[in-house]
Amino acid sequence: MNIKTAVVGTAMDRVDGVAKVTGQARYAGEYPQAGLLHGSVVSSTIARGRVLSIDTAQALSVPGVIAVLDHAHRPRISSYDDDYSDADSAEGTPFRPLFNDRVLYSGQPLALVVAQSLELARYAGSLVKVEYLEEPHETDLASVLDKTHPAPAETPAPRGDFTGQFANAAVQVDATYLTANEHHNPMEPHASTVLYQADGSLEIHDKTQGTQNCQDYLHKVFDLPKEKVRVLAAFVGGAFGSGLRPQYQLPLAVMAALHLQRSVRVTLTRQQMFTFGYRPRTQQRLRLGADSQGRLLAIAHDALGQTSRFEDFTEHLVEWSGMLYQCDNVALSYRLAPLDVYTPLDMRAPGAASGMIALECAMDELACAADIDPLELRRRNFAAINGNEGKPYSSKELLACYDQGAQRFGWGNRRPQPRSMRHGQQLVGWGMAGGVWEAMQMKASAKARIDGAGHLTVSSATTDIGTGTYTVMTQIAADAAGARVQDVTFVLGDSSLPTAPLQGGSFTVSSVGSAVRQACLALRSKVLAHARQHYPEVGKAPVEKITFADGYLQAGNHRLALADIVASAPEGFFEVQVEAAPSAKRKPFATATHCAVFVEVQVDEDLGSVKVTRVVSAVAAGRVVNPKTARSQILGGVIWGIGMALHEATQTDHRLGRILNHNLAEYHIPVNADSGEIEVIFVEEHDDIVNELGSKGVGEIGVVGVAAAVANAIYHATGKRVREFPITLDKLL
Amino acid sequence: MSANSPQSGEAHPLRLTINGQARSLQVYPWTTLLDLLREQLDLIGTKKGCDHGQCGACTVLRDGKRVNACLTLAVMCDGADLVTIEGLAKGDELHPLQRAFITHDAFQCGYCTPGQICSAVGLAEEGRACTREAIREQMSGNLCRCGAYSNIIAAVEEALPLMRAKANLQGGPRA
Question: Where is the Aldehyde oxidase/xanthine dehydrogenase a/b hammerhead domain (chain A) (predicted)?
Answer without folding.
Answer: 22-136
